[in-house]
Amino acid sequence: MDAAKSALRARILADRRALDPAALTAAADTIRDHALTALAALPVQVSGPARTVALYVSTGTEPGTRPLLEALRTAGTRVLLPALRADLDLDWGAYAGPDALVPGPRGTVEPAGPNTAALAEADVVLVPGLAADRAGHRLGRGGGSYDRALRAAHPAARVAVVLHAGELLESVPAAAHDAPVDAVLTPAGWTRVGATGEAP
């Protein structure tokens, strides 16, 4: 299992390193547009009158989330961002704009602390990943941070992984502790996965 995951991670990361910067920029804008359309149609079930979305700040050749971050903030949506702790678990803080972000460990960018929000406050949780399959299995980078964090998500929250085109696969190696996702968001739009049959 670990060897299969490692091989798949290596292949996808190599593919990402070959991506064109202009294409990455265009994909980030398209991801923003698809996310905003889906969020507008999704009822607020967790956080009350104002929607709360958990997201992350993309880095390197990850699918871009920065245009979406700014669009959500401009629209008045509360956005929670992860902060990676030394034990590889995640704390959460509210996004207050690009000037309130600081470098984090392992090349991440995160909100300046203290980060005391809870993931259970989010209606929608958008997580990073390297691949997913139609059963809802998500392949991360191997640290388990999001698998552990998603156990604290609200049961009514929708969980989606943000991927590049071609990273939704027929099968992804998964273990019992791997947290599933409900949907995949790519530049092509939302794809429902797993057993929920609901979008996103």
Distance between the termini: 29 Å
- The secondary-structure element order is HHEHEEEEEEEHEEEE
Helix content: 25-40%
Roughly how many Å is the radius of gyration?
16 Å
Descriptive keywords:
alpha/beta; globular; three-stranded mixed sheet; 12 strands; 200 residues; 26% helix; seven-stranded mixed sheet
Describe the protein in words:
The chain is an alpha/beta fold. 26% of the residues lie in helices and 23% in strands. It contains four helices and twelve strands, in the order H-H-E-H-E-E-E-E-E-E-E-H-E-E-E-E. The chain has helices at 2-17, 21-41, 66-74, 145-149, and strands at 52-54, 78-84, 90-94, 101-103, 109-111, 124-128, 131-133, 138-139, 158-162, 168-169, 183-186, 189-192. Strands 3-2-1-6-9-11-12 form a seven-stranded mixed sheet. A three-stranded mixed sheet has the order 8-7-10. A two-stranded antiparallel sheet has the order 4-5. Strand 2 (78-84) and strand 3 (90-94) form a beta hairpin. The mean pLDDT is 92.
